[in-house]
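U., I forgot to send this yesterday:
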Amino acid sequence: MTLIKQSLAIAALAIGFSSGVDASDLTAIDQAKLAPMTNTLLDDITGKKRSLEDFKGKVVLVDFWASWCGPCRQSFPWMNKVQQDYQSQGLEVIAINLDEEPELAEAFLEQVPAQFTVLLDSEAQLPDAFGVMGMPSSYLIDREGRIRAEHIGFHANRVDAYESSIKALLAE
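Result:
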C-alpha cells in the first residue's frame, strides 16, 4: 500500500467517512476560506496541462479520487449528471486522481467514464492544500474561489443535498 493510500485509509477510519461540513449547509461567505486555486499544473487525462486557475469565475466541484476507491466508482455517474445538468449555468466538475500510476486511473475510466475534467496528481501536489482526509473528498467552490461546502465519501442518500448546494451557488 502506498503512503498516500495508507494515510487516507487511516484518516478515513478515524472519521468514519463522515463529513465535517454537511454539503446541504453552505458555509457563509464571510466564514468561507479561499480555495487553494493554485497555478500548479497537472496533466488532464489527454495529457494537456491544466490548473485550477483555469476555472476561476465558475462554480467548481473539485473531487479527489483514486482507482482503488469503491465510493469513487459510485460517485462518477452522479458527477456526470450534475456536469451535464448544470454546465450551462457555470458548473465545472474537476476530478483529481491521486493514483501514483496514471495507468490505474485510465483503467478505472475505461470502466467508469467521466464526462467532466479529470486531472492527474500522481505526485500528490494538491491534497494537503485542500486538507483531503479520505476518498473521495469533494469541495464545492463558489465563483469567488471560496470553499463553501465539502464532504468526505460519497453517500447516495445525500445527492439531493449535494445538488441543492450546487444550485444555491449557481444562483448567487
